[in-house]
Structure formats: C-alpha cells, structure tokens
Design a protein that fits this description.
The chain is built from 14 helices and 20 strands. It is of the alpha/beta class and about 450 residues long.
C-alpha cells in the first residue's frame, strides 16, 4: 500500500467545476529547504544596497500595473472577488509596492552622544533574515504585498505560504517578482498546515493573517522559538449609528460593509448597533439597502456580493440565521456556485454565536442601545477588537466616546471596511497579536534594533 500525497486544490467559487490549481503539496522537508535557500540568498540581497532594492520594488509595481487587467480577472476567477473590488485591490497592490520602494532610503538608525568622554553611540535597524509569510485567500495580491514589500525593502528574503484557495494568484505574483529580484529572494511555498508549520519552525520572523485559532497557534510556536511574530486574525466589527446620523448614508455604508465581497473581510461589519431613536429608521433603510445590492457573477462589474469561497462557508451563513428574525436575505440564490443573499437579522440572544464568533459571510445582527455609553459596552463585549464604524453628525459626541472603544481602528461616517496602507493596521484582544502591520510600523517589525558603542582606540574601558 502506498501513501497518497496531499494535493493543493483551488477551485472557482462561482463555478466549482473550474479547477485552477491541482498540485502535490511539497511537504515539510521541502518547506525547510526553501527557507534555507532563502537564508543563503539573504546577505546578497541585503548588501546589494538601497538603490538596488528600491529599483526592484519600483519595477515590480510597474509590472503589476501593466498586468492589472489579467491579475484582476485571476482574482475574480480564483477567489470570487467582484470585478470592481478586484481592480481596486490590484491598484492598491501597485501603490503599496511604490510606497515601500522608497523605504530603503529611510534612516536606518540614529547617532547619540556618549554619557561621558569621546566616542559615539549608534542605533541601527537590521533585517532579521528570512521572513515567513502566511496569508489568506481573500486579498490574494494585497496582503502578500503589504507583508513582502516592507520585508524585502529592509533586506530580508521572503518565503510566502498562501492559502490553498489563492495559490494561482500567489504563483502569478511570484512570476512577476522573480523578474526583478535574485533567485530565492522571494519564494512561494504552496500547501496547507504541514507547510505552514514547517515555515514557522524555520523562518527568522513570521507574519500571519488568517483565522484566530490558527493565528494563536502560530503566535505560540514562534514565541516559543523566540522570534518576532505578528498575527492578524478575526473581527466581530460593529457599526454604531446615532440618532443624528444621516440614516440613508449610514445604511448605504453599512450595507456595503456587510455584503461587499460576500462579507469575506476581517473588517466587514457583523453587528449594527442603533442608538435610541435611530433603530426604526435604520432597520427599514438598512434592510432596503441590503436587498438592493447586486448579488451574482463576480465577473459582472455591477456585482457587489459574489459567491462565498466554499460550500461550507455558504452553509454557515444560513445556519447562523436559522431561528432568528430575518429582516433581509436568509436565502440561497438558485444558481451554480456558492452564493447566499446578504442577510440582516434581529432579536439575537446575547449568547448567540453571531455575537461571539466571526461568521465569515454577508450576515449581520441589528442590535438596540439606549445611548452611546450602552452602545460602547455592547461593542466592547466580544472577544475581538479590530475596527468600529461610528455614524453621527456630532463630532463632539463621537470624540467623547471614541477613546472608550476597545478596537484598533475607528472610522467615522465611513464603512468599517477599507485600509489606509501608509498607516498602522491592527486590532486588540483576539483580533491581533504582536506589532502592527503596514506603514512605517512594518519597517520596524521586519528589522531588529541594535545599539553600537564606538569608543576611540586606547580609551579606558
């Protein structure tokens, strides 16, 4: 009897018979060997100099921009991302590479006076070595980029382990990157948990985005090795709507944050908290806004809510809504692919899974709060703390309450979804572990700070 090798398979969620990738998983030994080859390539990449690294990242940005149409179509096909969002993701990916192309010229440290006598004290940031990146399927170009670009800019080499469902996108991204960096400076490692575990066991720094249980396991394993680790995990994000808000605008923003890309974003809105008199008008406006959102083929530019990534993911939405008062959605369209209608429910009991767990799909609970203080307590009463959106016309009211929200990001009169790549990204509690991603925070994470003492020859110790 012979063992069957695990297979990495990626299917089109809008047409599950369409298989994009089917290849043998490389296994743990190959994963460790990939890291060793990246480690051997790292000094040459680091000492090639700032100008070389900057030029490479800039060239990658231009090449991705030139292939934008092809890449967007690939994201539509492989992960079911609606075309408008896929195009926006590719544009953001280009912008991120261009942003970090300037990073090699950033100051790498500082000079300080000694406490007494001649000499110099220096601080200097140096790359860790091999950056092990484990990324999800929902942003198949942007998330690998906002990890890989700062890692490469600061002189690290990269081994990327993408989610199996986004393997084709990762391999195509690697084809572009390989044109501009030396061999083994950037490598894609297809596979699943076996390959991911091996990467965490061998890399010098680890950055993870994905589910909370796996992220916590990655953080524990990396911490036990004494290496830097960051983990971006789940969200159970709230939208707070005060009575003075523009209800129609708030409903439009929240509907997009619930149903955009079928709710498959860690920043999607899962709970809608109506304060006081906002409840009745918001219930009507939000239900109508959700029913009006186009659900269908992700290749159609008008589509907002396409398929979910798996049949299981689709079924979880229906299971979560079962037995609740459904205001909108709660149905499965009669068509091929893993689709479900954007769903809004109310009368959700405090112990219900929708108020404890992240259901990664287009479903949200409508909750009532007596006042802003009550709404903040509801917002904070979950294990997660990634992002909160607040909708109000009164800036003073908002500012008085914002600091009491236990979330890493707060968006005022805007959807909970949306990321500014030049600023730190991350949350609190079970949403994030370790240092922030993106912006200049990423440059700090992918480097270690060293302190040098330069004393004149012959000086007293």
């Amino acid at each position: 009897m012979t063992d069957t090798l695990p297979t990495v398979i990626s299917r089109n969620p809008a047409d599950p018979a369409d298989v994009l990738v089917s290849l043998p998983a490389p296994g743990a030994f190959t994963a460790v060997d990939t890291v060793e080859r990246a480690r051997a390539a790292q000094p040459g990449w680091q000492y090639a100099g700032a100008a070389t690294r900057s030029a490479a990242l800039g060239a990658i940005a231009s090449a991705i921009e030139a292939a934008a149409g092809e890449l967007a179509a690939l994201a539509v096909r492989e992960v079911g991302k609606p075309l408008a969002e896929a195009r926006a993701e590719v544009a953001r990916t280009v912008a991120i590479w261009r942003y970090y192309a300037q990073a090699p010229f950033e100051p790498a440290g500082a000079v300080h006076e000694t406490a007494a006598g001649p000499g110099l004290l220096l601080t200097r940031r140096r790359p860790h070595g091999v950056a092990g990146l484990i990324t999800p399927w929902n942003f198949p170009f942007a998330i690998p980029t906002w990890k890989a670009a700062p890692a490469l800019a600061t002189g690290n080499t990269v081994v990327l382990k993408p989610a199996p469902e986004a393997t084709a996108c990762a391999l195509r991204l690697a084809e572009i990157i390989h044109q501009y960096v030396p061999e083994s400076v950037f490598t894609v490692l297809p596979g699943g948990g076996t390959e991911g575990n091996a990467l965490v066991s061998a890399a010098d720094v680890v950055s993870f985005t994905g589910s909370t249980p796996i992220g916590q396991a990655v953080a524990r394993a990396a911490t036990a090795r004494g290496i830097p680790v960051q983990a971006e995990m789940g969200g159970l994000n709230a939208a707070l709507v005060l009575p003075d808000a523009d209800i129609e605008q708030a409903a439009s923003h929240i509907a997009a944050a619930i149903a955009g890309y079928a709710g498959q974003k860690c920043t999607a809105t899962s709970r809608v908290i109506a304060v006081g008199a906002a409840l009745d008008p918001l219930r009507e406006a939000l239900s109508e806004a959700l029913r009006a959102l186009p659900v269908g083929d992700p290749a159609d530019p008008a589509t907002v809510c396409g398929p979910l990534i798996h049949e299981y993911a689709r079924d979880q939405v229906g299971e979560a809504a079962r037995g609740l008062s459904v205001l909108a959605g709660g149905t499965v369209p009669d068509r091929d692919g893993w689709y479900t209608a954007p769903t809004l429910v109310e009368k959700v009991s405090p112990g219900h899974r929708l108020l404890r767990e992240e259901v990664f799909g287009p479903i949200a609970s409508l909750l009532a709060a007596d006042d802003l203080a009550h709404a903040i307590r509801i917002t904070n009463a979950v294990p997660y703390g990634l992002v909160t959106s607040v909708h109000t016309a009164d800036l003073n009211t908002a500012l008085n309450g914002l600091d009491l929200l236990d979330t890493g990001m707060i968006r005022l009169n805007a959807p909970s979804t949306g990321v500014d790549f030049h600023l730190p990204f991350g949350g609190s509690k079970a949403s994030s572990h370790g240092a922030r991603e993106q912006g200049k925070a990423a440059l700090d994470f992918f480097t270690s700070s060293r302190t040098y003492t330069l004393a004149p020859a012959g000086s007293a110790a």
